[in-house]
Amino acid sequence: MELEKHIISATTDVFQTMVMMEANAGPSLDHQPRSFEQTVSGMLGLSGDLQGILNIHCSYAAAKQITSNLLGMEVESIDEDVRDAIGEIANMIAGGLKAGLASHNLNVNLSTPTTIAGDSFTTNRISKAECIIIPFHIAEERILVDFQYILPR
Asked: DSSP alpha helices (H): ranges in 24-145?
């Protein structure tokens, strides 16, 4: 089904067209980071023919840079604008992934994005889920896009 290809395509497209930044994908990781420091994470659930959650994890510096480019204004602190922007980026990436899945005749519904920001937090993995974790380099920062999914039987 080429999920990794669809995630990379959706992410690079969103960053190029909406954030006006190049997002260069690195090799996928074989383990999912669970602990984050000074990070803003956007999360969005998927249901239907494919179930799971798409996450984007950005350092504070990356989140401020992304928000500044998205909104066209200088951002100096992690505030509601930053959380909303990272949630919207997750939403747009998930929308691109949904379009890619539709080309494989998979019908997917998207939830409303949720964001968290914190100096230190941990996340859990969906039990029995497959996971694709792709680091992207934007300017001098690195973000992670991870997709945990289960194909219903």
From this structure: 60-71, 80-102
Q: Which domains does the chain have, with CATH numbers?
A: 3-150 (3.40.1550.10)
pLDDT tens for each residue of the chain, 153 residues long: 589 999 999 999 999 999 999 999 999 998 888 899 999 999 999 999 999 999 999 999 999 999 999 999 999 999 999 999 999 999 999 999 999 999 999 999 999 999 999 999 999 888 889 999 999 999 899 999 999 999 776
Pairing outcome for strands 35-48 and 130-138: unpaired
Q: DSSP label at 67?
A: H
**HSE-CB of 113 using CA atoms within 13 angstroms:** 22
Q: What are phi and psi of 4, to 5 degrees?
A: -60, -45
CB atoms within 10 A of CB 1: 12
